[in-house]
Write a structure and sequence with these properties.
Length: 440
């Protein structure tokens, strides 16, 4: 039976765990990359004069623009147009220590306010030649923040890639297991039922694999049972054919003698007829056994009757059996304890079993020894046993064993079992039925 997967071991929980672990790993990676990125960026900016070089580049571009457009310091509209084309750039223009242009205050005639120059220590100033003279230009670029943003974006992308790698690696393990199960199912489809399905883990996939392996074992068991049934049928048919050949040969011999009149007297004639009659009855008995065996073996699952108390089902049957054996000259010792248990049977099968048992006792048991009938309990099963002594004097009747096989087949179809214990002196048959209530 396949085990039930707990919630903590389910694929859903494993996937959630994988996502959480991957997210924590990605966050840890991002933290490390952020610290390292900040440090390396600072080293690069400071070591390469990144800001100064960018400022110089924009000053050169501004000088070319001014010369091409022949701008004066008061052409604010054209200066604003140039600043807009540049990204993340702000400039202030001073002429004669007076602020004449500020890109942060577009459209305003700042020079009219005569704002004095006010430079900060971290700002760099550059001289630009305008048409109305040389002016001091202060350039402030946000491109250094843009550089840091690019670094930040790279850190986020790398962390996300790490998150995806962790998730895909975890999913790939499951996919590899699924592909392995698919390959193993293909092996089973090819007929190699001895191949064991790989059971790995404690999730739904391992539960599925265990179920597949149990199904494989069931198929193997079913095939073995069918093969055993075929062998048993072949054995029975072979033995019955051999047993039937003997009386048929005898009948043919005696009828040939009678047809040719090769008998000495009327007494011998009657003796041959009696032998023919005896052999004919023997053949009828064998064919009846064979018919019963083929009938039982050919039946599928039978429908059992409603559950009933053990005593209610078997009291009358035991009474009739004891009475019949008594009429046949047998002494019956009856020791059956009527246990408080419920069993489920097929009355037709049980009647046939009792008929078979009594028939075997009459044919094979020693009438001078008592027949013992007693109750039997074994684990969660209840039933009875019939024990008798085997007759030792005179000619022993022939036995094919097919009657015992019929009893075994009928008990299996009722969910019970039969046990035969035999030696040279005694024969014992045990019949057991499963209890439906735990009172055995």
């Amino acid at each position: 039976m396949a085990r039930e997967t707990s919630r903590r071991n389910s694929i859903y929980t494993q996937l959630l765990r994988l996502l959480i672990v991957s997210a924590f790993a990605a966050l840890a990676m991002f933290g490390f990359l952020d610290i390292a990125g900040q440090y390396l960026t600072d080293c690069y900016v400071e070591g390469t004069n990144y800001v100064e070089k960018k400022n110089q580049r924009y000053v050169v571009k501004l000088q070319k623009y001014v010369e091409q457009q022949e701008l004066s310091t008061r052409d604010t509209s054209k200066l604003n147009a140039w600043v807009k084309k540049q990204q993340l750039l702000f400039i202030r223009v001073y002429k004669d220590e007076i602020l004449v242009f500020n890109s942060e205050y577009q459209g305003q005639e700042i020079w009219e306010e005569e704002i004095a120059a006010e430079n900060y220590a971290w700002e760099s100033s550059y001289m630009v030649e305008f048409s109305d003279g040389t002016a001091e230009v202060i350039i402030t670029g946000a491109y250094i923040y843009q550089f840091y943003n690019y670094v930040m974006l790279g850190e986020i992308i790398l962390s996300f890639v790490l998150f995806l790698l962790f998730v895909l690696m975890g999913i790939r393990r499951k996919m590899d297991y699924i592909r392995k199960l698919s390959d193993e199912i293909g092996i089973l489809e090819g007929g190699s039922l001895d191949y064991k399905i790989t059971v790995k883990g404690k999730d739904e996939l391992s539960e599925l694999a265990e179920g597949l392996d149990n199904m494989r074992l069931s198929f193997v068991s079913l095939i073995q049972q069918e093969a055993e049934m075929v062998r048993e049928n072949q054995r029975v048919v072979t033995e019955m054919s051999h047993d039937l050949r003997t009386p048929v040969t005898s009948i043919m011999l005696y009828t040939e003698i009678l047809k040719k009149g090769k008998y000495k007297s009327e007494v011998q004639f009657q003796e041959y007829l009696d032998k023919i009659d005896l052999k004919a009855h023997r053949m009828k008995q064998l064919t009846d056994h064979l018919f019963e065996y083929s009938l039982i073996a050919g039946e599928g699952e039978i429908e059992l009757e409603k559950p009933e108390q053990y005593e209610v089902l078997f009291y009358d049957l035991f009474s009739e059996t004891c009475s019949f054996l008594g009429q046949k000259g047998f002494q019956v010792v009856f020791h059956v304890d009527w246990v408080d248990s419920v069993v489920q049977i097929s009355t037709d099968y049980v009647m046939r079993i009792f008929d078979n048992v009594t028939s075997n006792i009459v044919k094979y048991a020693d009438p001078l020894a008592p027949v013992e009938i007693s109750s039997v309990q074994e684990e969660h099963m209840v039933g009875f046993s019939v024990k008798n002594s085997i007759q030792r004097s005179g000619k022993k009747p022939e036995s094919t064993g097919i009657g015992i096989q019929n009893i075994n087949n009928m008990m299996q179809k009722m969910g019970g079992k039969s046990i035969v214990q035999e030696d040279e002196k005694q024969f014992r048959l045990v019949i057991l039925f499963p209890c439906l209530e735990n009172k055995c």
